[in-house]
């Protein structure tokens, strides 16, 4: 069985203005609400996926009716060129990893030249970080 948790109240206006119906948590069990088993754990444990990999493709064309794709159990070769680079998770909770310098339009920025920690979070549309760096990225 798979537990699902219903939120009946959320602070702020994010969920009122957002164009989505809910969140499918793909983080680690360490941050699950009520110590429930995340759906991804059950999918892997029950052998429902070919590989223990999930991947996202986000369409950059806002006029396209296909907004993106999630693949459970692998990757869709139509949506990338070259090889993937896998990095170790540095803190179980969110998908946290160490990264090197940030590039914008293929050019180094120096914002993270000495290394940074980053989190890839499928449940947010936000880019967060130190205010000075985020301001420079926005410019």
What is this structure's SSE topology?
Elements: H1 14-17, H2 39-45, E1 54-58, E2 68-72, E3 91-92, E4 95-99, E5 103-104, E6 107-108, E7 116-120, H3 131-138
Antiparallel strand pairs: 1-2, 3-4, 4-7, 5-6
Keywords: Aspartyl protease, Hydrolase, Protease
Family: Belongs to the peptidase A1 family.
Protein name: Aspartic proteinase A3-like
Give the structure's gist in a few sentences:
A 3-stranded antiparallel β-sheet has the order 3-4-7, with no helix packed on it. A two-stranded antiparallel ribbon has the order 1-2. Strands 5-6 form a two-stranded antiparallel sheet. The chain has helices at residues 14-17, 39-45, 131-138, and strands at 54-58, 68-72, 91-92, 95-99, 103-104, 107-108, 116-120.
Fold and architecture overview:
This protein has 139 residues and is of the alpha+beta class. 14% of the residues lie in helices and 19% in strands. The chain has helices at 14-17, 39-45, 131-138, and strands at residues 54-58, 68-72, 91-92, 95-99, 103-104, 107-108, 116-120.
Key attributes of the depicted protein:
globular; alpha+beta; Aspartic proteinase A3-like; Aspartic_peptidase_A1; 139 residues; protease; 7 strands; two-stranded antiparallel sheet; 3 helices; three-stranded antiparallel β-sheet; hydrolase
Taken in chain order, the helices and strands follow as HHEEEEEEEH
Q: State the helix count.
A: 3
- Which strand order spans the largest sheet, edge to edge or round the barrel? 3-4-7
Residue-averaged pLDDT, rounded? 86
Structural class: alpha+beta
N/C terminus separation: 48 Å
Question: Percent of residues in helical segments?
Answer: 10-25%
Strand content: 15-25%
Radius of gyration: 17 Å
Shape estimate: globular
Q: What low-confidence regions span 5 or more consecutive residues with pLDDT below 50?
A: none
In total, how many beta strands?
Answer: 7
Largest sheet: 3 strands, antiparallel
